[in-house]
Design brief:
mainly beta, Immunoglobulin-like, 4-stranded mixed β-sheet, about 40% strand
Length: about 130
């Protein structure tokens, strides 16, 4: 009988502990808010634990460019546009973050400024037409 109780408790912990870890951060700090629908025309960028984005290049239309930044791994990442002040535009992900910035036509470099990430190759090209 005691063995059955212990087995039941062990099995229950295998279910309860992972579910408890699923709670999200509902703040707007880029640390895990549940994403809504992706805005039409938004640039969807994924961050990988391999210190890379999910693509080498992205495209957008000139004007206000909206980014949806999703973490596809467990490491924290940021998304910045080279030449744009991080006071003006910087996304940070635990899970998902979203933001917009005004961009003229041209080529821009996207990068992550977490220590060592950009130097390891976490960059991509954004072509704005």
């Amino acid at each position: 009988m005691r063995r059955d109780v212990l087995r039941t408790l062990a099995l229950a912990s295998l279910v309860i502990v992972p579910l408890a870890a699923c709670g999200g951060d509902d703040g707007g700090d880029g640390g895990g808010s549940t994403p809504g629908p992706t805005p039409e025309g938004a640039v969807l960028v994924g961050a990988l634990d391999s210190l890379a984005f999910d693509a080498d290049s992205y495209e957008a239309t000139a004007g206000e460019v909206t980014f949806v930044y999703e973490n596809e791994g467990s490491l924290p990442h940021t998304l910045l546009v080279d030449g744009i002040s991080d006071d003006e535009f910087k996304l940070e992900v635990g899970d998902t973050d979203e933001g917009s910035v005004e961009l003229d036509a041209g080529e821009y470099e996207l990068y992550c400024d977490v220590a060592g990430h950009r130097a390891s190759g976490m960059e991509a090209t954004l072509t704005v037409e």
